[in-house]
Write the structure tokens for this entry.
Amino acid sequence: MKPSSASDKNVSPLRRDLTVLDERSRLLRKTIIRMLQAGGRGHIASAFSLVEILRVLYDDVLRFDPRNPHWRERDRFILSKGHGCLALYVMLAEKGFFPEEELWKFCHRDGILGGHPEHKIPGVEASTGSLGHGLSIGIGFALNARYEKADYRTFVAVGDGESNEGSIWEGALCAGKHRLSNLTVIVDYNKQQSCGSTFEIQDLEPFGDKWRSFGFAVAEVNGHDVDELRSSFRSLPLDRGKPSAIICHTVKGKGIEFVENNLKWHHKSRVSDEEIRAMLEALDAVF
Amino acid sequence: MRQTCLDLVYELAKQDPRIFFVGSDLGYGTLKQFKQEMPGRFFMEGVCEANIIGMAAGLAIEGKIVYVNTIATFLTRRCFEQIVLDLCLHHVKVRLIGNGGGLVYAPLGPTHLAIEDVAILRSLPNMTIIAPADANEMRRLMPLTVDHDGPLYIRLAKGGDPIVSRGDFSVQIGKAVPMVEGSHALILTTGVTLKIGLEAAENLNRQGIQAAVLHLPTIKPLDTEAILQRVSKVDAVVTVEEHTIVGGLGSAVAELIAEADLAGHRGFKRVGIPDIFPDEYGSQDSLMTRCKITAEGVVCVVQELLSKPRRSVAATHRSHTD
């Protein structure tokens, strides 16, 4: 995919993504919907734009041991856009970091999984939720790996709305300065923030050029195309002397037509059984 | 004191490979030797405090002990949320060294006056706050900061501060240092106000007023036992701090005394910066004088508190039920 620019069709807010979700992607989303139902709330649309990114990371890229979450040689992953945690929790449960039953206690007093990830959860490296924190923490991880001559890698997933934060760009300057090739920023570029499109609220374009100018090697991919994601993540580092930024073009709410790019679904509380049923049915509809 | 603190960071780092240093855009040559001898553990990251704190948190989560240094205002206000979430919530061993606590940067104006650093950090769970009185106390405290659990703030004074701390006392983080005992009044000090407290006690003593001085190099956690033990014996309690009277040492002591039911029949006063932005330049000393954070100021406050007629708690209770 070519680099983005304001006129590029890839960054049009009105674009419909035609990527067909396979059975696994649909199942992961169904689990997320059931968590939403159990918790009665959640940032479902933000989670849906992340599903393929996290699926490929945990299936094919990250090195980890769920029986030993603090294994020194594991790769570190930080979900800096912590509100997308529903997708992360589903992956961590599936990989065995904690029992699946925890998913059904989402946001419950007796559960370990809240509306934003916390470092006490097995498999979660850092507490996030307030935006703009994860990249700098990840830089600390990456600098430590370099100092220790350890070969673990650090991945930080940031949102596009999150990229309004100055601290993201402080971190980008720092990662570029240190040429942290063991650090990858994954941008979930779904082009929607809480109250409007990123183009209206705080335009990030030319987004790829920004990361490049901060010293990153940049790739842009379809964030719902599993093969494209896999191939991109497997080619890391994109440049042996630079940190990598993989801008994933995604759709907020991907997979359910009435949720996609619908601002009312950024965060959902008081979800009715009817809505849950409609979402599950929509996932099975052919796009 | 600042030089001693940084010299000790270097000395401690030489002995302990877990120790890292992160600065923002400090004066030329700061910790030059550290940088030369241990370049892999030395970082000068520029004017980006939020990133520095996050980065330090990341290193600390990985098991390192990270000393971060810049001007106190920027270290506490600009990156407050990073301190709350990245340091306190994660309970990591990051040590924040704040240059110019209080009115040190008087000539530079209110943007550089750290008058509320203690108040804002005191409200954070897991945070420890220390404010040594002089270079000697700093020398005794710094080795204890290495393995201390959780984040810690080290409030630095101007430098070249007179040595007034007790060399014969085994200092501990979280413990008060008894300087002078006395039965009429209690003066509680922290940081460089120890000198003021000692001078005031001496002056009062000449007038026949026995004033105790209890020094608190640790403001959080407060040595509640040492304070309450002495408060119960005196008729007047005065706190002295180079800090706004809102939320600092004075507030902490007031909360403690009130909750221990010891407030009713004894005088209490906070000596510190009133709830304003100091609007003069001049020097640290001139601003301290303007705010009456001086030995003379403390003497007046103690005399005033002791001169007011006070009834015991029991007498007050009786008058209400008569």
Residues 23-39 of chain A form the longest helix (17 residues). Residues 1-10 of chain A have pLDDT under 50 and may be disordered. Chain A touches chain B through 24 residues (CB under 8 Å). The two ends of chain A are 22 Å apart (CA to CA).
